[in-house]
Amino acid sequence: MDAIALFNIILRLAIWFLLTADLSPANIMIGIAIALLLPRDRTSLGALKDWLRVLWEIIVAIPQAYIEAIEIMLFPHNEETIVCEQVKPRRTPSLIFVDIFVITFTPKTIVVKYQEKGWYEVHRVTRNQ
Question: Whole-prediction pTM value?
Answer without folding.
Answer: 0.64
